[in-house]
Amino acid sequence: MTNLDEFISEFNQLHEAMKRYTKRDDSFGSLFYQLKDKHAVIKQHQDTIDMARQLRNLLIHEKKDTFNIAEPTAEFIDSLKKIRLQFENPATVSQFKKQVISLNEDDTLKKVLELIEQHHVSQYPVFSGQKFHGILTDNGIANWLAAHMNEELLRLTDYHVKDILPKDEKGSSYLVVREDLPLYEVEHKMMNLINEKGHSKLVILITQTGSINKREDITGIITPGDMPKLIESL
C-alpha cells in the first residue's frame, strides 16, 4: 500500500468516526467545522486535521494523471492515525482510580495533621456516617488555625473536622464524575468551575455512577497536583 493509499484510508476512517460521534452523515469539512470548537481532541489538533482535509481534496479532486501533486509522508499519516485513535478511544478518568482516604466529621485535628504528614495528601472527602459533606483541604486548616492563632493553648485533640470544614471556602470546589468520563470532558468541566469559583483549588471525585451515596462510592480522586499528568494525557 502506497503512502497515498494509507493516507486516504486513515482520512476516511477519521471521517467515519466523526460521523458516528455526531450521528450525522455530513461531509468531512462540515463535521470538522462543527467539532473544532466543541470537541477537545479535534480542537487540539485542528491545524493537522485541516491540513489533512486540504491535502485530501488536492489529491482526490485535483489529481494529475502523470504524477501526484503532493505525497503525504509516513510521519503525517502516523500523526493522523494517532488523532483518530485518540478521538475514537479517548483517555478516561479511570486512570486516576486509587484508594482514597476519607475523614469522619468527628475525627480530631490531630488525626488530620497526622494523615497529612504520613500520606502527603492535603484534600480529604468528609463523611458523617455515609453522608458526604464536602472536601477538607489544607486551605481550610490554614484558615482555621489563623482564626485561632491568639489562643494561648491549642489542644489538637479538642477540635474536630466538623469545626474546621466551615472555614474551608474551597471545600465545596469539587466535581463528582463517572470513571468512564473522557479526560477532555473533565478538563472542560474543570475550566468552567475554575472560572466560576475564581481559583484552581479544584478536586475531582471519581465514582462508578457519577454520584456519592456512601464513602465506598469514591473510587479515585484528581487533585491540583495531578493536573500536569491530566494535561499530558489529553
Automatic annotation (TrEMBL):
Query: Which superkingdom heads the taxonomic lineage of this protein's source?
Result: Bacteria
Q: Which UniProt keywords apply?
A: CBS domain
Locate the coiled-coil region(s) and give their ranges.
none
Question: Residues in domain CBS?
Answer: 96-152
Q: Which SUPFAM superfamilies match?
A: CBS-domain pair
Q: Does the keyword Heme apply?
A: no
One Pfam family in the UniProt entry: CBS
Designated name of the protein:
CBS domain-containing protein
From what organism does this protein derive?
Answer: Macrococcus hajekii
- What is the phylogenetic placement of the source species in the record? Bacteria, Bacillati, Bacillota, Bacilli, Bacillales
